[in-house]
UniProtKB/TrEMBL annotation:
Signal peptide (residue range): 1-27
Family: Belongs to the SPCS3 family.
Recorded topology in the membrane: Single-pass type II membrane protein
Keyword Membrane applies: yes
Subcellular location: Endoplasmic reticulum membrane
Keyword match Membrane: yes
Organism: Lotus japonicus (Lotus corniculatus var. japonicus)
Alphabetical list of InterPro entries matching this protein: SPC3 (IPR007653)
Keywords: Endoplasmic reticulum, Membrane, Signal, Signal-anchor, Transmembrane, Transmembrane helix
Main localization of the protein described in the UniProt heading: endoplasmic reticulum
Domain of life of the source: Eukaryota
Example of a GO cellular component annotation carried by this entry: signal peptidase complex
Gene Ontology process terms (BP): protein targeting to ER; signal peptide processing
Protein name: Signal peptidase complex subunit 3
Length: 167
């Protein structure tokens, strides 16, 4: 005798199986999307460059960021978190990473943008290593899906250099 409870339970199990299957398809189809984002970042100005009283170097710069991240969006994308970081080497650490700017892109319509901004987070080196320092700017993005796992990737733009003198 199949009671109502038994049938309801079977239906629920079936529904959950279908849902899990659809989520699987959703994140699988995301992994088939091979995005081709483009980003250009220019340091359009060094606003100032100083040694702080405690001996650490700090620089303030203006960045010109032009991005087209529309291809990162699929129907399964909730939002994209993007950040721009400066990466450089010092005698103590082979990789120093400093986040300079970040933003959340809520939809594909907002994924093509141009922004001219001074660094949102302070660019401070724990020491006095920044004069004449070569650095890379990296643009990282975290694609937050509606279902499935987060995808993370980046673009490295090498070949920047800080001034030789404080100013
Ligand atoms: C910012 O960069 C874009 C493209 O690289 C360029 O067309 C634009 O003139 C730049 N703007 C400023 C204020 O430097
Ligand atoms: C900067 O980029 C170049 C070229 O991609 C790479 O060889 C170098 O290791 C990078 N430097 C740092 C500190 O990540």
């Amino acid at each position: 005798m199949h009671s109502f409870g038994y049938r309801a339970n079977a239906l629920l199990t079936f529904a959950i199986t279908i849902l899990a299957f659809m989520c699987g398809i959703a994140s699988f189809s995301d992994s088939l999307n091979s995005p081709s984002p483009s980003v250009q970042v220019q340091v359009s100005n060094i606003n100032w460059f100083q040694k702080q009283p405690n001996g650490n170097d700090e620089v303030s710069m203006t960045l010109n960021i032009t991005a087209d991240l529309q291809s990162l969006f699929t129907w399964n994308t909730k939002q994209v978190f993007v950040f721009v970081a400066a990466e450089y080497e010092t005698p103590k650490h082979s990789l120093n990473q400093i986040s300079l700017w970040d933003g959340i892109i809520p939809s594909k319509e907002h994924a093509k943008f141009w922004i001219h901004t001074s660094n949102k987070y302070r660019f401070i080196d724990q020491g006095s290593n920044l004069r004449g320092k070569e650095f890379n700017l990296t643009v990282h993005w975290h694609i937050m899906p509606k279902t499935g796992k987060m995808l993370v990737d980046k673009i490295v733009i090498p070949g920047y250099r800080l001034p030789e003198e404080y100013r």
